[in-house]
Design brief:
The chain is α/β, with parallel strands linked by helices. It has one domain (5-161): 2-Layer Sandwich (Nucleotidyltransferase, domain 5), CATH 3.30.420. 46% of the residues lie in helices and 16% in strands. Strands 3-2-1-4-5 form a five-stranded mixed β-sheet. A hairpin with an 8-residue loop joins strand 1 and strand 2.
Length: 210
């Protein structure tokens, strides 16, 4: 379970940073950045924060709402950053993820002194000092909170996209290459600005209609 061990070791304002959406064929990659300004926050929040993939969608939504309530109370800072499909195609998914992370940190409203970044890839030209932490979303409250923020924000975006483009199952698959997504591409083609054209399955779909 996560705790504040790494935040306490670092000096100053510390942000946890994580992303959602590196693997999907469609939609943006989204990063979250969260700073706990105090450890005195909602008990439910701290007791249930964890790697977003281990938490049910319903509980993720509740934790997301609790995070933004804490922000309204001045207890946390939250930043969300995105890199769109076109940017992913132009610079590759890793660099686009770094860009989304940078935008998330810049969106906090206050640049932190340090960022704890989930995983083992450290971005260059970051707004503050940073360290990487493998499985950080299961070890650090700040990273776990960033994981929830990024995941729920992106899932909501994909549900909104599903209202505009109802043939791909985005509300259920979040842009991943599921059967309904594949069937949608076969029947209706790809969506310009939404599908990642640098991804092999999308390139193959484009080649079939060329």
């Amino acid at each position: 379970m996560p705790d504040f061990e790494f935040e306490n070791k670092l000096q100053g304002l510390v942000a946890g940073v994580d992303e959602a959406g590196r693997g999907p064929w469609a939609g943006p990659v989204v990063a979250g950045a969260v700073v706990f300004l105090t450890h005195e926050v909602d008990e439910f929040l701290l007791e249930n924060l964890d790697d977003s993939k281990k938490i049910t969608p319903k509980k993720r939504e509740t934790l997301y709402e609790k995070l933004f309530e804490a922000q309204d109370k001045g207890q946390v800072l939250i930043g969300i950053g995105q890199a769109q499909a076109q940017e992913i195609d132009e610079m590759n998914i890793l660099q686009a993820t770094f860009l989304a992370m940078k935008r998330a940190v810049e969106g906090l409203g206050q640049i932190p002194d340090y960022a704890i970044i989930d995983g083992n890839h450290k971005p260059k030209d970051f707004p503050c000092q940073s360290m990487t932490l493998i499985k950080g979303d299961a070890r650090s409250y700040s990273v776990a909170a960033a994981s929830i923020a990024a995941k729920v924000f992106r899932d909501r975006m994909m549900k909104d996209l599903a209202l505009r483009y109802p043939y791909y199952g985005f509300e259920k698959n979040a842009g991943y290459g599921t059967k309904d997504h594949i069937e949608g591409i076969k029947a209706f083609g790809i969506i310009d600005g939404v599908h990642r054209k640098s991804y092999r399955p999308i390139q193959e779909a484009l080649a079939k209609v060329a």
